[in-house]
Structure formats: structure tokens, C-alpha cells
């Protein structure tokens, strides 16, 4: 006898939310950072409500009495998580940050993660010196981790509101860089959905991209990775819908903020030549190269040594001081064995890159969802094998996989339209349900 698909989905939801709840509960007790603990206390309520609601729906479904109306929707759990695990803790931490604990070596007091302060400082440095990067060898003291700005020049944009308009308590609260990251991420989601002609969003897509603890935690305590992955998804949507030049421009912005997404150049290039031909690829490449040069060259010329140290050497773990990224992932563990271990880690990373390139060439992505799958796999390999890495970077492949489900929804709707695909009109309702 085939299991009721509705009950099966609810069971998966219940397992997912229970796992998220366990993660949040654990962080209330063991998290090193103050912001993590604040987030966790709020998140317990969000995930707890999702578990209770989903459990209620599961019991009702087994009795054949699934509630109707808004309370019977699986989106209720997503809404509870959005409110209690994202919006409320972010607001609380922005206010708490006004007490002034930035730059202190006291993680148990940080209301924002260091990347927030560093990006805001980088904007101030850019306005004052023409570059967000300082020469860490000319400080007159030993370099510290927080002296680094391990991002490209575009990341500085998110700190400009604080640098230009901050000062008083209200101004500082309103210009916290986390609001800028959040606004950018939301704008990218809306633009992507518009480009895809507002497809139906599967609940599972929202669970991967939004409700997962890595996303919710990042939203509240930091945020830059969500803005970057949002722009990355937007560049895939632009390429998929035939806007090759705009895709190249947006991807240049993404790479000029954080180099971790650089593999997208190969994925989108293959997607465009497969779907649109050499002319589209040429437009994409031209926009990518020109925009990248315009963004990087002026900053590089101000202080080439500092630029290379901050943007390349430090993130790769070969800077003047070591990156603190030390999650126990394979690349980090192998590199911890010494110089030979670091060489082995980079060799494995190179092998993984070759394997993925072969995959791209032999089975080129023909759709946006195919391209997102390959990008997610590539980033998983990069995150796992890079010597300096954090488990938090896994938010990238999780969001990409969630976006993939939305792209699939849009693609299935397109192929179901008479004359555009194989699904006859009689099957359209079944396909979209």
C-alpha cells in the first residue's frame, strides 16, 4: 500500500524541525558567542512552534482530518521560524550592540560577529584612504586577526551607510551592516522570483534556504554570506532567462565581494554556451571581466601588497598570520599536519576541481536547476577541502539547493505549457500540486 504523500511530507517536516530544535537547544548551553546564545534562545521558540504545529498536522492527517485554512498550511512552521529565529533575534542583537563591545577579545559579549565590524570599518578606511585594506606589516605592532578585511572591495558597500551616517544610537542601530545584508538578500530573492515569473515555492525549498539553522543564525549574528549567495542566485536567474550581460555584471559583483563563489564563472559559462550559444557567452565574459577590472584595479593600485595579503593570502591560510577559520572539516584537519598536510589539502582541492570540470564538460547543465546543482556540489568540495574553512560556509550550498527547487518549479511549469513541453493540459494541475 502506497503511503499518503501528504503524511510523508509532514513526517519529513517533523524530522527536520526536530533536528533544528536540537541544534538551537544545544547552542543555548554550549555556544561560545553571546550572539549565538541570544539567537538560540529565540530560535528554540521558533523551531519549537514548528515542531508542535507539524506534529498536530501529522496527527490530524493520520486521522484523515487535515485542518483547512491558514492553520492547516505547512508554511505556518516557516513563518514561526522567520519571526522567532530571524527577525526578533536580529532586532535584539542590533539594540544590544549599542552597548559597545566591538573589537573586544570577549566572544561572550559580542552582539555581532567580527565580520560585521570589519566590513563597517573597511568602508571607513575606503573613504579615508582609498582602500579598505591596511598593510598589516606596517602597523607598528603584531598583526591581529581583526586587522584583516578578507573580502573583495564590493563587500565594503554594505558598511558605507554606517561610515556615512552612523554616530548616535539611533543612527548606529539603523545603519548596522546586518540590515544591509538582509535587505540585499531579500531584494535578490524578489528579483529572482520575478525573473522566474513567480513560480510556486515548495516548502522544502524554504526549509533548505531559509529555515535551516545555518541560514537563520547567519541572518541574526552576521549576514554577509546571505547577501552574497542571494546575488549569486540572481546571477543564475539572469543567465537562465537569457540576460547574459547582466548575469556577468552581477557575478562580477559577487566575486568582487567574496572569492569563494568564483567557481560560478565556469558553471555559468557552460550553462550559457549550452543554452544560448557563443554570443551569449561572449557578452557574459566581457561584462564579467570589465566589471571586475573596474572594481579591483583602483583599489589594487593604492596598495598592491595589502590587497593581495587581505584578499588572497589570508583567506587561503598563508597570510602573515593564520586565519582563525578552524572548523573540523577535512581540509583543515589535513592542513593541521603541517606543510605537507597543507600541500595535500590543496592537491585534493585541485583534483576535486578537475573532476567537477570534467562533469561540467561531459554533462553540461541545460537548465538553471542543473547549473545550481553543479555549483552546490562544487562549493561543498571547496568548503570541505580548503585549509582555512568554517562549517558556516555550508550555508552557500544549502541556499543553492533550496533555490534549485524553486528553479525546478519554474521549469516544470514552463514545460507544462502547451506547445512548450511534453506535459498535456490535463496533467498541468497534477504537475503543479
Automatic annotation (TrEMBL):
It holds the Pfam family GT87. It comes from the Bacteria. InterPro entries: GT87. It is a multi-pass membrane protein. The keyword Cell division does not apply. The chain crosses the membrane at residues 12-36, 42-61, 73-95, 179-196, 208-238, 244-273, 280-301, 333-359, 371-388. GO terms for cellular component: plasma membrane. Belongs to the glycosyltransferase 87 family. This is Integral membrane protein. It comes from Amycolatopsis azurea DSM 43854. The lineage of its organism: Bacteria, Bacillati, Actinomycetota, Actinomycetes, Pseudonocardiales.
Amino acid at each position: 500500500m502506497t503511503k499518503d504523500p501528504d503524511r510523508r511530507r509532514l513526517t519529513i517536516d517533523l524530522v527536520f524541525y526536530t533536528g533544528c530544535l536540537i541544534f538551537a537547544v544545544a547552542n543555548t548551553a554550549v555556544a561560545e558567542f553571546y550572539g549565538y546564545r541570544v539567537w538560540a534562545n529565540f530560535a528554540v521558540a521558533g523551531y519549537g512552534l514548528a515542531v508542535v504545529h507539524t506534529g498536530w498536522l501529522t496527527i490530524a492527517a493520520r486521522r484523515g482530518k487535515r485542518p483547512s485554512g491558514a492553520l492547516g498550511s505547512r508554511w505556518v512552521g516557516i513563518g514561526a521560524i522567520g519571526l522567532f529565529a530571524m527577525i526578533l533575534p536580529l532586532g535584539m542583537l542590533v539594540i544590544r550592540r549599542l552597548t559597545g563591545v566591538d573589537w573586544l577579545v570577549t566572544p561572550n559579549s559580542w552582539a555581532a560577529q567580527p565580520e560585521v565590524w570589519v566590513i563597517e570599518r573597511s568602508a571607513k578606511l575606503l573613504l579615508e584612504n582609498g582602500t579598505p585594506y591596511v598593510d598589516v606589516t606596517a602597523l607598528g605592532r603584531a598583526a591581529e586577526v581583526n586587522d584583516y578585511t578578507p573580502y573583495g572591495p564590493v563587500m565594503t558597500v554594505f558598511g558605507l551607510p554606517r561610515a556615512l551616517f552612523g554616530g548616535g544610537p539611533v543612527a548606529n542601530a539603523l545603519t548596522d551592516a546586518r540590515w544591509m545584508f538582509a535587505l540585499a538578500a531579500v531584494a535578490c530573492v524578489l528579483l529572482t522570483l520575478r525573473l522566474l515569473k513567480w513560480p510556486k515555492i515548495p516548502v522544502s525549498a524554504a526549509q533548505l534556504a531559509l529555515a535551516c539553522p545555518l541560514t537563520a543564525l547567519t541572518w541574526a549574528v552576521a549576514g554577509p554570506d546571505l547577501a552574497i549567495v542571494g546575488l549569486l542566485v540572481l546571477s543564475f536567474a539572469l543567465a537562465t532567462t537569457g540576460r547574459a550581460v547582466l548575469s556577468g555584471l552581477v557575478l562580477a559583483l559577487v566575486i568582487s565581494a567574496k572569492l569563494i563563489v568564483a567557481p560560478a564563472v565556469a558553471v555559468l559559462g557552460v550553462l550559457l554556451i549550452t543554452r544560448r550559444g557563443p554570443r551569449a557567452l561572449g557578452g557574459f565574459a566581457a561584462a564579467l571581466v570589465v566589471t571586475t577590472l573596474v572594481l579591483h584595479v583602483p583599489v589594487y593600485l593604492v596598495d598592491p601588497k595589502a590587497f593581495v595579503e587581505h584578499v588572497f593570502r589570508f583567506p587561503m591560510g598563508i597570510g602573515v598570520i593564520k586565519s582563525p577559520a578552524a572548523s573540523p572539516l577535512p581540509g583543515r584537519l589535513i592542513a593541521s599536519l603541517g606543510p605537507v598536510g597543507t600541500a595535500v589539502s590543496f592537491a585534493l582541492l585541485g583534483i576535486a576541481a578537475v573532476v567537477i570540470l570534467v562533469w561540467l564538460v561531459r554533462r553540461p547543465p541545460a537548465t538553471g536547476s542543473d547549473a545550481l546543482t553543479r555549483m552546490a556540489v562544487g562549493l561543498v568540495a571547496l568548503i570541505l577541502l580548503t585549509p582555512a574553512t568554517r562549517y558556516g560556509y555550508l550555508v552557500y550550498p544549502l541556499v543553492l539547493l533550496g533555490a534549485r527547487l524553486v528553479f525546478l518549479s519554474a521549469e516544470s511549469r514552463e514545460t507544462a505549457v502547451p506547445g512548450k513541453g511534453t506535459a498535456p493540459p490535463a496533467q498541468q494541475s497534477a504537475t503543479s500540486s
